[in-house]
Specification:
Layout: E1 23-36, E2 42-44, E3 47-55, H1 56-61, E4 69-72, E5 77-82, E6 84-85, E7 91-97, E8 100-104
Parallel strand pairs: 1-4
Antiparallel strand pairs: 1-3, 2-8, 3-7, 4-6, 5-8
Amino acid sequence: ESGVRLVGGTGTAVVTVTVSADTTERTIAGVPIAVRGLASGVAVPASAAVTVQGASDVVRGLTPADILLYVEGDAPGSAEKTVRAESSPRYVVRSIAPAAVKLSGTKPSR
């Protein structure tokens, strides 16, 4: 017999259980930054450090290849572009460093 017994009443009970996940935060260096919109665009610098948060077993197993970073490249030049991350149901991106990069490339892709 288990440790809970219902005494008297209608034979039903309402039980509330709070479950908290074992979450952690980790910074992963060397995550490549893709350039969207330029045929041969390159981000400068070409990689970033990403801080992610999620379930401990998921976060511990992440590699730079698992995180997708990108910038929108309408034209190469000196203007800085914000680095963005593809969303994931497995983890949350807390920060990206550097947050912006410059672009080097040739022509817009069609």
